[in-house]
Amino acid sequence: MLSRWLLPLLCALSAAEADFFRFGSIGNVSTYYFNYFYCNIWEGDCQPHQDDATQQVPVGDLWSGFPQDYVSLLHQWYCSLGQCCESGDCRITNNITGLEKDLQTKLHGQHLVQSVVLKAIQGFINNPEPNKPLTLSFHGWSGTGKNFVARIVADNLYRDGVKSECVRLFIAPFHFPHARLVDTYKGQLREAIRDMVLRCPQTLFIFDEAEKLHPGLIDAIKPFMDHYDNVDGVSYRRAIFLFLSNIGGAAINDVALDFWHSGQNREDIGMEDLEHRLRAETMESQGGFAQSELMSGHLIDFFVPFLPLEYRHVKLCARDAYVARGLETDEATLDEVAKAMLYVPKEERLFSAQGCKSIPQRINFFLP
C-alpha cells in the first residue's frame, strides 16, 4: 500500500528537483543578499550558511516539475493523514476577525489602510463567485507599514502565514534582477503562479518593490488578474495579488502636510482626497509597474495609501518593539528612541523619514 503512494511520488520528485535547480540557476543574486533582505525586511527565518555567495536565490517552485496527476495524488494522501478540514483546506484560515483586530491594534497611523484592506479582503473572501482575482496596490514611503500589512494579511488568511504553501513572495530586484532575461522570467513566473493556484484553492501573491518589475513581466501575468473565467483551463478568481511600491509617496505626503498646515485632523483624510492623485502619480511614474497593462487595463481594485508616520506613531512602534522582546519601558525611553529618528520637513520635524522599519534595530542602542 505504501509503495503505491511513494513510488510515483519519488519519481516525480526527482524530475521536479532537476527543474527546480535549473530554475534557481538563472538569477545571480547570492543567497546572502536574499537572506539579508528576507530576514531584515520580511522578518523571515534566516537560512544557514548565509555567507556562501556561490549559492543562488531559489526563484523556482519545487512543485513545478510535478505532473498534475501526482499533485492530486499527493493531495489525497495528505488528506488521508487527517490534514484536511471538512470546510476545505486546513492551510486556509480566513480569520477576518483576527485581521480586523491586528490592523486596529498593531498598525499605527494608518486609518485608511485599516478600513480599505479589511473591507476589500472581507468582501472578496465572503463572495462565493468573484468575477476576478483581488488586486491591491500598496503605496507610500518606506517604513510606513506596507510589508507589515502584507504579513498581517498572510497571518490571518493562512495557518502558516507567509511561510504557507499558499503564499508566494516575489522581491523584484532579487528574483528578477536582469532585464535581458525577462523572457525567461515570464515563463517561470507564469508557471509558478499557475502551479500554486492548481494546488491551493486560495492563493496569495506578494510583489515587493513592484515599481522595479519589468513591464513585460507584469503583462505576462496580466491575464491571471483579468475578468476571465479561466486561462488555459485554470481559474484564478480566488487568488489575491498584493503589489507593494514606494510610488505615490510624494503625493500622499503632500496631502498629509496640507491637512496639518490647515489645522485639520489627520484622521479626516479620506480616500477621496488621495485616490485620484495617487492613481495619476502612479500612471506618470517611471518603471515597469506604471507602464504595464495592469494600469492601463484598470485591473487594480484598490490603491491603498500609507500615510507618513508622525512622532506619536513612532513611539507606539517603539513600545511594540519593546513588548515583543518581553521588555518593560517608560515614556522617557520611548521618547529617546523616537527622537533618534529622522523627520521631515526639517523645519517642522513632522513626518518620520524612516517610518517604523528601523525601530527594532534602533532600540538596541537604548538597552542597558
Automatic annotation (TrEMBL):
Residues 1-18 form the signal peptide. The lineage of its organism: Eukaryota, Metazoa, Chordata, Craniata, Vertebrata. InterPro entries: ClpA/B (IPR001270), P-loop_NTPase (IPR027417), TOR1A_C (IPR049337), Torsin (IPR010448). GO terms for cellular component: endoplasmic reticulum lumen; nuclear envelope. Residues 309-366 form the Torsin-1A C-terminal domain. Keywords: Signal. This is Torsin family 3, member A. Pfam families: TOR1A_C, Torsin. Belongs to the ClpA/ClpB family. Torsin subfamily. GO terms for molecular function: ATP binding; ATP hydrolysis activity. It comes from Kryptolebias marmoratus (Mangrove killifish). SUPFAM superfamilies: P-loop containing nucleoside triphosphate hydrolases.
